[in-house]
Records
---
Amino acid sequence: MSDAAFVGRYGPVALVTGASSGIGAAFAQQLAEKGMDLVVVARRRQRLDELATRLASEYGVEVSVCEADLSAPDAVSRIADACAALDIGLLVSNAGFGFKGAFDSGDAAQLSEMLMVNCHTPLLLARAFVPRLRQRGRGGLLFTSSVEGLIGCPYSTTYAATKAFVNSLGEGLWAELTPEGISVLTLCPGATDTEAPRLQGIDPATLRNLMSPGEVAALALQNLDNGPVYLPSEHYRASFEQLLAMPRPQALMAMAGSMKK
Ligand SMILES: NC(=O)c1ccc[n+]([C@@H]2O[C@H](COP(=O)([O-])OP(=O)(O)OC[C@H]3O[C@@H](n4cnc5c(N)ncnc54)[C@H](OP(=O)(O)O)[C@@H]3O)[C@@H](O)[C@H]2O)c1
């Protein structure tokens, strides 16, 4: 699809959560390159301001900054207020985080925060923006999930459960909205070279088959119409096809073995 056709279908404005780093920053960059105006959301205001200034001057697009903590109960209303006067044609619900370790090694407050950021806020954001997309009769919804949402994932149990919620949400919406001309893609990256592995105490150098955030975002945007669920990594496509064909107990024990490494 040409950039002009992309903006015609999904423009004029895309909302991107988690745009201050990693995959979300790559989405913002690539959408601006296509000529989309943006609303960028995250907590780190300075990063968002720098991104907005750079993208506006490099691509001549309008970029609004919305500082919001997506674990806070008022996050969706803050974002909806920031977008009230804008015609949002593409919602990229991308912000998220996880941690690795035994299920009971994370404190309960952290688990609640993960549920808010990874599940509750994406659900309510979709609830806020789907009626607007339906009214336009065109546009898109993109959820950044994870391959870990495709099966229970020992030593990343809560995170995987949050991403299973996202997969189910995205699949249901895909079937509801595709007939109305709205693309819904649930993106399931594998290991990606962002701040996320380091925040979880993982040295990215120890990860094999690592993709760059730019590659992940580019493939997702090219495959917006190839939902419901899309795995950008060939390696993870092949390995999950094998894993999901195994008897479940065996597959879960294989996951436990590989996560422990
Ligand atoms: N990297 C991987 O290997 C990998 C694999 C599969 C899926 N994913 C998924 O990809 C998505 C993007 O992650 P990433 O890899 O790009 O990691 P990242 O570089 O750590 O980016 C995470 C983004 O989410 C935002 N965020 C986190 N908590 C937030 C909160 N409470 N409120 C508002 N924004 C918040 C962060 O912004 P602030 O800190 O500025 O708020 C940041 O912009 C996530 O959903 C993640 O689960 C990543």
---
Amino acid sequence: MKTTIDHELDVLLRFRDAVGEIHGSEDLCMLLYSLVKREKPKIVLELGTGLGVTAVWIGRALVENGGGRLWTFDDGRFQDSFLPQALACLEELPEFRDAGVAGDDLAGYLHKLLRLSGVAEQVTYVDQAIDLTEGVDDLMPSEVRAGQGIDMLFSDFAHGPGDILDLLALALPYMSEYSSIFIDSASTYLLSYFMLEQVIDQLNTGKLPHRFSQGRTSDERQRLLQLIAERRFQLVHLFEDKDRAQNSTTWIRVEPVQWSPPPTAKVR
Ligand SMILES: C[S@@+](CC[C@H](N)C(=O)[O-])C[C@H]1O[C@@H](n2cnc3c(N)ncnc32)[C@H](O)[C@@H]1O
């Protein structure tokens, strides 16, 4: 007999098959699911919820982990371009059709999706614009403001070189000692690819990129420099062999500067 959990997993798989390709996240959602299962992050942030494919799979992993939380942000600015297509696909799935998602805007759709997928406890959708020129402080959940680090940050809303530099400068002070930053599509945007190759090298030699300094007080610059000096950064370009635009995800692993594996590793 199928349990509620089996049923929710079925719903998630069918949802992924129906909607995942619209934003090209049908495989990335599984990768993120696996990493969340393995590393058990407590605090995860997603910038750009889109149709919620990655959000529900991260949420599902958090449910299976028995803890952790995802906050995901989107102001629905692309909804007219993508939501009708998703809703048409979901008309084929009885759970979604019966829940009446077809009449919803992005916020209504996402709230129903999180509930139907059984991840509503773990995932909070925030209907909010992300404006890096205003900083990211107002995106931070109370736990992070209270000093807990972000363990995983997935940015899927902008991937130009300036956006990435601003995001790194703003987010690094909030990241846990051991953490990961994913930026979708950045590795297949040539300027961003070259910029990342350079900037990650610079960070690893303790240099502060000029854009990190702009608009910051000398105290803020010193704190950022100190933080960068105490971290090492590993850059991995993840490409997928699928013939479609933007078929990449950048992974930046952040770790303290030390010679041993993380405390979670059972080293012999
Ligand atoms: C590629 S989609 C995210 C796809 C998502 N990962 C998924 O699996 O369905 C990017 C989303 O970012 C949102 N977005 C783009 N710029 C934004 C901004 N400045 N503030 C808030 N949301 C934004 C768009 O509304 C869009 O839904």
